[in-house]
Amino acid sequence: MTNQSRTSSESNTCKWCDKTFMSERTLSAHMCIKKRRVADKDLTHTRLAFRVFQMFYELNTSANKPKSQEDFVKSQYYDGFVKFGRSCITNEYLNPEQFAEWLIKNGKKLADWSKDSLYDEYLLTYVKKEPGMKALERTIIYLSKWAEEHECDWQDYFSKVSTSRAVYDLRSAKISPWMLYLCETGDELLTRFSTEQVTMIQHIIDATFWMKLFANNKEEVVDVKGACKIAGI
Ligand SMILES: [Zn+2]
After folding, report:
1. Which own/partner pairs from 204-207 qualify as long-range (CB within 8 Å, at least 24 positions apart)?
2. What is the 113 CA–ligand 1 centroid distance (Å)?
3. What's the rounded mean pLDDT across residues 10-26?
4. Terminus of the chain with fewer CB atoms < 10 Å: N or C?
C-alpha cells in the first residue's frame, strides 16, 4: 500500500517544477514557467532563441555535446535569448543567426542584444562585406515586395518611392548600396533626398567607401551593372 501510493505520487510529479499532483489529470492541466517554455518550443522566435543558445555555448566553451532543449528550458538565460529571438522576428532582422554570431564573437552582453544600436552596428559591417551579386539578389526580392504593396513595377522603385521610405529602407539595409549606385535609376533617388535625409543615411551610403570598393572589385561591378541592365532598372 505504502509502496503503491509512493509510486503513484512520483508519477504525478511535474518534471519541471517538482510539484506533485493528486492525479495524472491535474498534472496534465498544471502549468508552470518551465512547462510553458516547453509548450512554446515550436514558435518561430523560440526556435531561433534555442539555436542561438546552442551557438552561444558552442562558440564560448569547448564542450562537444550540443546543449539540449531541456538545458535551454532550465537555463537562467532563457528569457534573454527569447527576447532576442522575438526582436529579430518582429523587426525582420537580416540573417538573425549571423547577427547572433557577430554579437557573441564581439563579446556583446546578452542584456543588450535587443538594442537597435547594436543591430545598426552589425548591419553596417554586414552591408559593407556582402558580395555584390548577393546584395543584388536580396534587394530585388525586397523590391518585389515593395512593388506588390504599391501596385507598380519593382523597376520603378528609385523613381517612385517616397524619400522617407527610402531612408528607412537604406538604413535597415533592405536596399544595398551595390544596387543604389550601380543601377541606372539609382541617381533619381539620390537627387531627391534632402540634406537632412542624406545625413540619416550617410554611414550606409558612404560614397568614399563604396567608390573605393567598386574600384577594387571591377569584375563584380560589371556583373551587377549587367544584371541591372537586363532586369531593366
Ligand atoms: Zn511544473
Report:
1. 204/124, 204/127, 204/170, 204/171, 204/173, 204/177, 205/170, 205/177, 205/180, 205/181
2. 29
3. 91
4. N
pLDDT value, residue 63? 79
Q: What are phi and psi of 106, to 5 degrees?
A: -95, 10
* pLDDT mean over 150-157: 96
Distance from the alpha carbon of residue 58 to the mean position of ligand 1, in angstroms:
29
pLDDT category at 213 given cuts 50, 70, 90 is: very high
C-alpha 23 – ligand 1 centre gap (Å)? 14
Q: Which residues pair with 13 in a beta bridge?
A: 20
pLDDT at residue number 68: 96
- Mean pLDDT computed over 18-41: 95
**Centroid of ligand 1 to alpha carbon of 20 (angstroms):** 9
Ligand 1: centre distance to CA 60 (Å) = 31
Cell of 138: 536580396
- The rounded Å distance from CA 17 to ligand 1 centre is 4
- Give residue for cell 537562467: 76
Grid coordinates of 118: 547594436
Q: Is the pLDDT of residue 8 over 90?
A: no
Looking at residue 10, its pLDDT comes to: 61
CA 31 / ligand 1 centre spacing (Å): 6
Rounded to whole angstroms, what are the CA distances from 195 to 167, 171, 201, 203? 12, 15, 10, 14
Q: What is the DSSP letter of 13?
A: B
